[in-house]
Amino acid sequence: MRLPLDWLREFTALPADATAEQVLAELVTVGFEEEAVHRPGAELRGPIVVGQVLSMEPEPQKNGKTINWCQVRVAPEGQPALEGEGIDPSGVQGIVCGAHNFAPGDKVIVTLPGAVLPGDFRISPRKTYGHVSAGMIASARELGLGEDHDGIIVLGRMGLDPEVGTDVFELFGLAEEAAEINVTPDRGYAFSLRGVAREYALATGTEAKDPADAVTPAPLDGSYPVTVRDDAPVYGVPGCDRFVARVVEGVDPTAPTPVWMARRLRLAGMRSISIAVDISNYVMLELGQPNHCYDADRIDGGITVRRATEGERLTTLDEKERTLSAGDLVVADDSGPLGIAGVMGGAASEVSSETTRILVEAAHFDRVSVARSRRAHKLSSEAAKRFERGVDPLLAPVAAQRVVDLLVELAGARDTGQGTDLVVTAEGPTTAAGATPASAARPEVRLGLEAASRRIGLEYTAEQQIGYLEALGCAVRRDSDALLVTPPSWRHDLATPEDLIEEIVRLGGFEDLPSTLPVAPPGRGLTKAQLHRRRVLQGLADAGLTEVLSYPFVSEAQNALFGSSGDGAAPAAIRLENPLSAEFSLMRRSILPGLVGVAQRNLARGFRDLALYEGGLVFLPRTGEKVGTSEIPPLGAMPDEQTLDALDAGLPPQPFHVAGIFVGHDVPAGAGVARRPVDVSDALDAARLVGDLLGVQLVPSRAHHHAFHPGRCAALALADGTHVGYAGELHPKVAASLDLPGRVAVFEVDVEAVSEAAPDVVVARPLSGHPATTQDVALVVAADALAGDVEGALREGAGELLESVDLFDVYEGPGVEEGHKSLAFAMRFRAQDRTLTADEASEARAAAVRVAAERFGAVQR
User: Fold this and answer.
1) Where does Mg(2+) bind (predicted)?
2) Residue 207 annotated as binding?
3) Higher confidence at residue 805 or residue 650?
4) What is the pLDDT of residue 234?
5) 503 labelled binding-site residue
6) pTM for the full model?
7) Chain mean pLDDT for the chain
8) Any binding-site annotation on 499?
9) What percent of the chain has pLDDT over 70?
10) Which DSSP symbol is given to 307?
């Protein structure tokens, strides 16, 4: 909301020398956000004066353009002109002008040599079209005052007849400024000078004048036909509970908008259009009540406020034809819709340059109805902005009278006295004097005297609280240990004790609030699952992987590739009813499709060595059940526990998975750095790390999955055999089809399943202070024997003295029988309470070899 300071000064005790920055500083103290300062004349400098065209001679040019060689008086006759280089002492300047919308005798705006226009455009005498042009006759665009719709500014057409030589800075108020604030959605009353004036008075401890008090609505007898009917109220609330219609005649559509009004509108961010439209906008900015002017001669019959018929069409003021739905509230006549209520009027009844009879509308429309129509039709308007945030329901007759008064004063109109103030009450529509709409009633709120102090930690006396609330416009009465507060009609947001406490704190001063850290209640904190998720994600980052985030939407092909159990059959998946893209219409069963997409984008941008991971939910449909079968509760109503339970029951299982992808090499290139391509070991190590972080050992075993390399794929399981994921390398054909180069290692683990198997407390293995003994063993086994299984046999046979066993060599060739291979393991032994002897280590190694021999026929080389 932009606030022209001279306009705000009419309703507040704003000092004459106050700046926009000072106004913003005061409004910030009562909770508004500072947006900007606007000074339209900030880029203008130098002599810019009123001039009168004495003569203009058209001169056709070779390029087909016709220019005018003008003689313009810039100083009163007989008085010296301004001094300056290029300014004729006689007060008459020769100026070349390419515009043609003015004539001799017209008074215009002249920028003299030495002036500077927006964009650092400097005016100086220059030779052009065979003349020395000493100045420029200016348009609104050249002065930075608006769009150049009509060419040169002709002051007479604006109702102005200033003396030649008058300083334009003073004439147009170019030295004035406006402060702009951001208005939050709950404070719609501040979308007006009326509302902000109150807030400025509260911030400064001064008085404010309500502009509505200066207007006395005329009593209306209901002589203009108005009907309000609503067959589809939203949540039982009628779309319109007050509609005021006033008729004026004899309007002069050519009457110019006064300079003071156009200046204020411009400072407020609006363009001056015509006298009727400008008055309508001016009253809306002043009071906060949107209103509309119709050409009364283009209305067929009376006014009806109703819901639209499905498929009705309306061409709005932005010249777009719109198809209406049954949910749209419209203002209509006997021929059809005249406008979307509270959003935008229609072109058929628009005020034009021939309009002499005007119907003035000021109504109170329901916020939800307006918001729905605005969103449905993608329409943005100043009226909708205010109705959505709440308009004072008592203001409609005041605003209508204010518009009528200004039309009479500025456009020569005559008030016919014809009009209607239709109010919709619980008993139905009525034009009875003094009737008020149901929305104007504000329920009384009970506020305990100690509630504010208890919530905020700062003492507020009863007198302070009463003073703050009454300053807001509330009616307050005391009832023993509580205050009974009735909010004013313009504060629909004050409905609970907490709302009132917030206002007390706001007016009491945020700077006085104590600063204390809250103490967390005992017995709360992160759940076990949340702790485990954080531990896994942080652990992978600590290991050097980079976390990414991808969309959970996948295609049919991605679901079949990565979402299946390994046999290649397309698994069931949850299908979106309204997908962002028809291609990606399924919810993911695996994290890997998104990770692959991230890797593709990084590779396309030149990043060759990648180690990425992502944690997130996957979505697994229940067999034979449809997701989301429960009826969605209506908006605006809190669902009960049974409804929430039914909604939860309709949700699919959503376990938390973590997945990773490795592309390129294990380390970046560098001098003296030995790099190796990533392989299955990288994926397997990262997957095992997930288990280690949670204190669970993941057991790998050879597996088959159609997306993985047939010899480099491991299934991951818990000790009890529960499958929790895969690790390995993508099949070369799959990697090639995905435009991924070389080897691509991936893993995915069901963190939720691992977390459930994890102990509540992970106990670290004690460290021994005694030295270790390392012995190697090479075993010849059948070529199809799995190294992991042989390693497991060695661990079991060696017993508790074995600290670690690592495979460091696999050999097939001369010296090893055909169909066999040699596996070499490094076995490290250590005791917690003593130094092992060589014999003890050898005995443990021999026991390990015996178990391997029994199970796999292993022979020691």
Assistant:
1) 493, 499, 502-503
2) no
3) 805
4) 79
5) yes
6) 0.66
7) 90
8) yes
9) 97
10) E
